[in-house]
Design brief:
The complex is a heterodimer of chains A (78) and B (551). Chain A is mainly α. Chain A has helices spanning 2-46, 49-58. Classes of the chains: A mainly alpha (78), B alpha+beta (551).
């Protein structure tokens, strides 16, 4: 009889502990999911053309220079 | 006696409990679930949209809906004042929503994490947040018409409207799941209770053929063009002519994707796929290609351009009413001679003209993967008057969309293949990647016809009557167009649609770009408005694609 009561108590307490852990993991998963979305957004912002334009302006690369092409080569230079 | 009374009292007490339990567990078991049993819907994450280089165009972001439970609120004025300051909205706006007779009232949706944290710090009683996700656009409204937006259906659920969001809504939205679990009073799962979980399936991601850099170039140049030429609206479409993969598609005016609901619905219309117009002279190369293919003309055949041509009671003339005498078929394109085109049309024949209109797919949707496409209408043979066969040779009297025009034009320069235009090249789900390959609808021209028409179009650019600031050393082919706009059955000469369609490098085209400007005011001619804009874009693309001169 005492054994049964102890076993019962053990099962109930274990159940509570495991439930707590599940709850904890659920909260962490949720937090990670939200953090993932936030980070994805930040990365996208940093690789956007808009951000590149702001940076280019800051570093003075605003005006693209016209490329100079060499004439088509007729023979190989040594 | 006392013992009997207590005994009966206990009997009555237990009977009451038994009856109540019987009522709850047997009679009401089907509609009353355990108060501990919680069922939550698991929302899928909507698919993301990337450009061809895997750069993000549409993502999801955390968002919160702020609600108030008025029955718990003690100081209404203090609550309104605090929320107003924290969210930076008018007090009146919150006050109107806050109905104290209700149990639950939504105050604001779409709050960011930062806004939520700010409100959280106020420690207000009777408020709460519901978690949601909403769309995030790293490139803002760079591709508004291509992307579309999320609206609400009858049940208040998100639904994609227009553009890719509308066309690929079923792929993007994913499938909802649910979790049914018995929880104790602290919200912890009861392990011996009901535990059932069906995972949500997230939406599929789309990888586009759009290149956001080309899109940016196109939009920037189109904005400049609309201002410079004082045009009402305009479009730039750039495609790979071999596959009809759309690399850029911009139409202006457009709308703000974040605040689409603040715009009139006219702004939602994607002119490139849903606006029917008469194309004008950009149409001429299609008829010339058909005549070459049917061996009715050769590039060096001559036509004696002596003056106006009468078709029934109408007189057809050149744009400047000047005539050069004997001219080649190539010269007809170079000087965009309407009378010359009527001659080519006569050589081609009415049946062939109509047959090619059908083969080009006019009057039907191209099948582009964007919601909102209009196919137009191709008149049946009995409805064609002799004048229609004459005017269609120079692109008047037929209504098509810009996307139909660029597709038909691609077929004459890519070896003769009419391709299905498309914007999505990959659909990625958790376990599978589906690649969408270019689709040939049919072959209309031989390689030889295609090679000849490309050379004629290069000559058209090099010997056109207008001189443009072209990128030096590069072979570019193209054609101008100036179409008059019919208003109540009469052409208004002051209102035109100016266009230019061109490709480079001419021998092996890397890009085909179509520029359309609606009602330009600085000049009505395509050669003075759309063409310079095209060459500006072409210069940028030549640098971007690293195309060397001489190609």
């Amino acid at each position: 009889m005492t054994g049964l009561i102890i076993a019962n108590l053990f099962v109930v307490i274990s159940g509570i502990v495991i439930s707590d852990e599940i709850n904890n993991f659920e909260q962490k998963t949720d937090k990670l999911h939200k953090a993932n979305l936030t980070l994805e957004k930040e990365v996208a912002k940093l690789s956007s053309l808009n951000f590149a334009q702001i940076q280019a302006k800051e570093y003075g690369f605003e005006n693209a220079s016209a490329p100079q092409y060499i004439d088509q080569l007729k023979f190989a230079h040594r | 006696m006392k013992i009997k009374f207590v005994f009966l009292l206990f009997i009555a007490f237990y009977l009451t409990i038994i009856v109540r339990l019987f009522f709850l567990q047997v009679l009401s078991s089907s509609d009353n679930k355990s108060p501990y049993l919680k069922t939550n819907k698991l929302y899928p994450i909507r698919g993301r949209i990337y450009d061809k280089n895997n750069q993000s165009l549409v993502l999801n972001q955390n968002s919160y809906q702020l609600y108030v439970e008025p029955k718990i609120v003690k100081d209404k004025d203090m609550l309104i004042n605090s929320l107003s300051k924290s969210l930076e909205v008018e007090e009146a706006s919150i006050s109107t929503k806050l109905d104290m007779t209700k149990y639950w009232v939504s105050i604001a949706g779409g709050l960011t994490q930062e806004q939520k944290d700010k409100v959280d710090k106020l420690n207000l009683k009777g408020i709460g947040f519901d978690y949601q996700t909403k769309r995030f656009f790293p490139e803002a409204s760079l591709s508004a018409h291509v992307i579309g937006f999320l609206g609400k259906d009858d049940q208040g659920e998100d639904i994609g409207r227009l553009g890719l969001e509308g066309f690929y809504d079923r792929d993007l939205r994913g499938l909802s799941g649910f979790v049914e679990t018995e929880r104790d009073i602290l919200g912890r799962p009861i392990l011996i209770g009901v535990q059932q979980r069906v995972e949500a399936e997230d939406g599929r991601d789309l990888i586009l053929t759009i290149d956001k850099n080309v899109q940016e170039i196109s939009k920037k140049r189109l904005i400049e063009g609309l201002e410079k030429y004082k045009a009402k609206k305009g479009c730039v479409i750039t495609a790979n002519p071999k596959t009809m993969a759309i690399v850029a598609l911009v139409c202006l005016p457009d709308y703000d994707l974040e605040k689409y609901y603040e715009f009139d619905e006219n702004f939602y219309k994607n002119l490139a796929i849903s606006d029917l117009y008469e194309p004008g002279s950009v149409f001429k190369p299609l008829i010339v290609a058909a005549a070459l293919e049917e061996k009715k003309i050769k590039p060096n055949d001559t036509y004696n351009e002596t003056g106006q041509v009468a078709v029934g009671k109408y007189n057809i003339k050149t744009w400047n009413d000047k005539y050069e005498g004997k001219i080649s078929m190539t010269r007809i394109l170079e000087k965009s001679s309407n009378v010359g085109m009527v001659y080519i049309g006569e050589k081609l024949g009415k049946n062939n003209i109509y047959s090619y209109m059908k083969k080009f797919g006019f009057g039907k949707n191209t099948g582009i993967d964007l919601e909102g496409e209009a196919g137009g209408y191709l008149k049946l043979v009995p409805d064609w008057y002799p004048i229609d066969y004459a005017t269609v040779t120079f692109g008047q009297g037929i209504a098509i969309t810009p996307i139909q025009m660029i597709r038909a034009f691609a077929s004459i320069i890519n070896g003769g293949y009419l391709m299905k235009p498309y914007l999505v090249q990959k659909i990625i789900s958790k376990n599978k990647t589906t690649e969408i390959k270019p689709k040939i609808e049919r072959r209309l021209f031989s390689q030889m016809t295609s090679d000849i028409i490309r050379k004629m179009l290069v000559s058209t650019v090099e010997n056109a009557e207008a001189k443009w600031d072209r990128p030096k050393g590069f072979k570019i082919g193209g054609k101008t167009g100036t179409a008059q706009i019919p208003i109540k059955g009469v052409y208004d000469v002051s209102k035109t649609i100016a266009s230019f369609i061109g490709f480079a490098p001419a021998d092996n085209p890397k890009f085909l770009t179509f520029v359309v400007l609606y009602e330009p005011q600085s000049s009505q001619w395509g050669s003075e408005t759309a063409a310079p804009l095209f060459f500006q874009i072409a210069k940028d693309l030549i640098v971007y694609y690293n195309i060397s001169p001489g190609q």
